Amino acid sequence: MNTLNDLPFKNENELVRFVMQELGSIQTLKNEVLELRGELEALKKPNANPKAEKKSSLEQDFIEVRITNILQDLRIPASLKGYHYLREAIMMVYFDMNHLGMMTKHLYPSISKKFETTPSRVERAMRHAIECSYESQENRSSAIYRFTTSRPTVSEFIAAIADRLRLEDAINERR
């Protein structure tokens, strides 16, 4: 059995630092594997039916209108870049909730490519748009802000709206 003196570390702090670095590397690899697995599953989904694609396009347009109405109700000015980024992000999450777990790795980069900017600018613009909405006293009674004492994070905001739309759709399907 090896003792601390037998290992190539000068002291216990070096050993702890080494172990923490290795654990961080393992966690990073695990996250990358999980993300790749999600991307692989998305690629496996068949999209061969042109009628389904046409319906999907109409459905996307309808969802986009509903999202636009919600964002306008929340008093987010359409002149803000974050408004357009939020609308795109909410649509992406509405159609695939897995995007919520991949905000920095997938969602922000996807939006930044579409709008020809950087992921950090996308995230900052979304935060600013949410800030503007939250600062408005009229919005404090809105369902998005009702259950929180502080401004929601970008992911909380997107998840709340996408979830609201999904619930409304589920209720409408039952009728």
Automatic annotation (TrEMBL):
Cleaved signal peptide residues: none
Keyword annotations: Transcription, Transcription regulation
GO annotation terms (biological process): regulation of sporulation resulting in formation of a cellular spore
InterPro entries reported for this sequence: Sig_transdc_resp-reg_C-effctor, Spo0A_C, WH-like_DNA-bd_sf
MF annotations from Gene Ontology: calcium ion binding; DNA binding; DNA-binding transcription factor activity
Limits of the Sporulation initiation factor Spo0A C-terminal domain: 67-165
Gene Ontology CC terms, in alphabetical order: cytoplasm
Gene3D superfamilies tied to this protein: Winged helix-like DNA-binding domain superfamily/Winged helix DNA-binding domain (1.10.10.10)
Pfam families per UniProt: Spo0A_C
Protein name listed in UniProt: Stage 0 sporulation protein A
